[in-house]
Amino acid sequence: MMAKNLFLLPGDGIGPEAMGEVRKIIGYMNSAMKADFVLDEGLVGGCAYDAYGAAISEEDMAKAMKADAVLFGAVGGPKWDHVPYEVRPEAGLLRLRKDLELFANLRPAICYPALASASSLKPELVEGLDILIVRELTGGVYFGEPKEIIDLGNGQKRGIDTQVYDTYEIERIASVAFELARTRKNAVCSMEKRNVMKSGVLWNQVVTETHKRSYPDVKLEHMLADAGGMQLVRQPKQFDVIVTDNLFGDMLSDVAAMLTGSLGMLPSASLGAPDAKTGKRKALYEPVHGSAPDIAGKGIANPIAMIASFAMCLRYSFNMVKEADNLEKAIANVLDQGIRTGDIMAEGCQKVGTSEMGDAILKEFANLSA
Ligand code: NAD
Ligand code: IPM
Ligand code: MN
């Protein structure tokens, strides 16, 4: 069996706390299930800034490039609010996405039946919810040039960010969305703002052409992104796959997270293109949530988003479908048993910390894998 090289970047705040629970699962898989994960670990975000004065070191970038998959915790926190923009913690994550060319960010929002009442919406609106947001991750306003603050010389400054999309970038993310829709309910909703943005006009055209050329069997709908946000909280179950740009995808996925009960529930996979020779893709798996400075260090963070991100890693990087299914089932079973971290706590449930939640999921996973 070929070793599977995982590069762990726990990061800041609750990142290392959540990653600790994934380590337990990997440890179990290596010892009891004879899996062959080889782990290495680096620094990213504020902790990397403290150690090297950069949001990620060149050495750790090289390791991320070489790894079969990267597991990422979270970065940022008030301690680094005033460090220079270029080396702020979030820059480490953006560099990883850009340099590894992880253009496709898959953000599933699934409402586990046991959590329907933890959502901010009425249970009947979210029960059985299963949406996949496909967010473009290496383009748009996050990376477009110019990106700067210029001094206008009259006491005024101008902040500039530039939204740019080329045809190939839209084509490849649309293709990912259509391919994934075929494995689900076969419906894609593309969101942009073609009514005010030129990049939105192009986005709409290219998605339409890609659909017509290669995926006519998939149902395609277009929505203006603001209306899409509204529909997402009005009637979320109307959606199957949503494909959208980097910034809209960032915002809409936080909205979708709350439909499922908590930001602490949402995993994500950031994938590159398959290598022409080997078919392997670069990949990074990260929860959608951030470093949660308000609860960091208290041992109360919900590790489910991080654990579910590892399940996505098993599925997408290693084709370990059975193991991924079991890990997701283990999460659902633990929620069914009424075990809850504070963010998803409900009446009559048992409140636990990060580590107890991880242990409970591992126990279920072990049972299911036996
Ligand atoms: P956040 O996601 O860190 O927290 C938002 C709220 O959700 C907080 O109240 C927090 O306690 C709660 N929350 C988040 N994850 C949770 C979990 N696993 N369990 C329980 N509760 C959880 O967002 P924020 O406060 O806007 O940002 C804090 C820092 O994180 C900022 O520096 C931001 O840039 C950074 N950030 C990083 C990432 C990332 O590393 N991928 C993502 C988003 C934000
Ligand atoms: C996310 C985060 C990041 C983003 C930040 C931390 C750079 O909010 O992954 O959703 O804006 O993409
Ligand atoms: Mn975000």
TrEMBL record:
Its cofactor is Mg(2+); Mn(2+). Gene3D superfamilies: Isopropylmalate Dehydrogenase (3.40.718.10). Pathway: Amino-acid biosynthesis; L-leucine biosynthesis; L-leucine from 3-methyl-2-oxobutanoate: step 3/4. SUPFAM superfamilies: Isocitrate/Isopropylmalate dehydrogenase-like. Its EC number is 1.1.1.85. NCBIfam families: leuB. Belongs to the isocitrate and isopropylmalate dehydrogenases family. LeuB type 1 subfamily. Keywords: Amino-acid biosynthesis, Branched-chain amino acid biosynthesis, Cytoplasm, Leucine biosynthesis, Magnesium, Manganese, Metal-binding, NAD, Oxidoreductase. Residues 5-361 form the Isopropylmalate dehydrogenase-like domain. This is 3-isopropylmalate dehydrogenase. It is found in: Cytoplasm.
